[in-house]
UniProtKB/TrEMBL annotation:
UreD, UreF and UreG form a complex that acts as a GTP-hydrolysis-dependent molecular chaperone, activating the urease apoprotein by helping to assemble the nickel containing metallocenter of UreC. The UreE protein probably delivers the nickel. It is found in: Cytoplasm. The keyword Disulfide bond does not apply. It comes from Streptantibioticus silvisoli. Belongs to the UreD family. The keyword Zinc does not apply. Keywords: Chaperone, Cytoplasm, Nickel insertion. Required for maturation of urease via the functional incorporation of the urease nickel metallocenter. This is Urease accessory protein UreD. It comes from the Bacteria.
Length: 263
């Protein structure tokens, strides 16, 4: 009898649920961490709940399968961040790791999803997927920053896909494939020699009637650029490229238009 193949890497899934508490605030009836994804309830502003993702072990390594789901019910307000950058590292056999994030935001709910950067270390291979499902009236701030390689080292391989729907209709769908083996990833049509990329997706009903203008910004110091682009819907996408993650973050902050109607 042939033995089943060995399972490579860690399988871990964490879940967050936020609901109105009936007193003008937000409760967290479900906060379930798993494996390397430890979830901590942290101090928040009135009306909001805040969760910090804490890395309980080195992850993702090659072969790991990680998933993080968050659901914000109608009328709830949730802010999710992370305690430190996520570093993708190579596994023993070169297998690809995956990290899936699924976000659901109900009517008149608000989610701010702003983790620290994701760093693809040399030799790593990671596929990141973020799926967002919004209901009409929902508000969203989502920030992603990705860095190819730690300081002074070669980049790892990173595939990143982001999809967002509003009432089941497409709002945004994009994919990036970066690092060794990807044609032209470091050329002028993609990163142009830079090693960090970031994006900020803002969704608010008021953007339908009052979208911001298309705007291009350059970094105050160093090599970096950001572009503000209204989408076909109540959304705005800010994209930034720079030599390092810190400059990308500063560019996203500078280019960030206000979220209309936000409390």
């Amino acid at each position: 009898m042939t033995a089943p193949p060995a399972v490579r890497g860690v399988r871990a899934a964490a879940r967050i649920a936020a609901v109105p508490d009936g007193r003008g605030g937000t409760a967290l009836p479900l906060l379930a961490g798993d494996g390397p994804l430890a979830l901590r309830r942290t101090r928040s502003a009135p009306g909001w709940a805040r969760v910090t993702v804490v890395g309980a072990m080195c992850a993702p390594l090659g072969g790991d399968r990680l998933a993080l789901d968050a659901e914000v019910a109608a009328g709830a307000r949730l802010l999710v961040g992370s305690a430190a950058a996520t570093v993708a590292l190579p596994g023993a056999d070169g297998a690809r790791a995956t990290y899936d994030t699924n976000l659901t935001v109900g009517r008149n709910a608000e989610l701010h999803w702003e983790p620290e950067p994701l760093i693809a270390a040399a030799g790593s291979d990671l596929a990141v997927t973020t799926r967002i499902r919004l209901t009409a009236g929902a508000r969203l701030v989502l920030r992603e920053i990705q860095v190819l390689g730690r300081a002074g080292e070669a980049p790892g391989h990173l595939t990143s896909r982001l999809t967002a729907t509003l009432d089941g209709q497409p709002l945004l769908e994009q994919e990036l494939a970066l690092g060794p083996g990807e044609p032209g990833w470091d050329g002028p049509a993609v990163l142009g020699g830079r090693r960090a990329v970031g994006q900020l997706l803002l969704v608010a009903p008021e953007f339908i009637d009052a979208p911001p203008n298309v705007t291009r910004l350059s970094a105050d110091r160093g090599d970096g650029v950001a572009l503000v682009t209204p989408l076909a819907g109540p959304a705005v996408l800010v994209t930034a490229l720079a030599a390092d993650g810190l400059t990308v973050r500063h560019l996203l902050d500078r280019a960030r238009p206000p979220l209309p109607g936000a409390a």
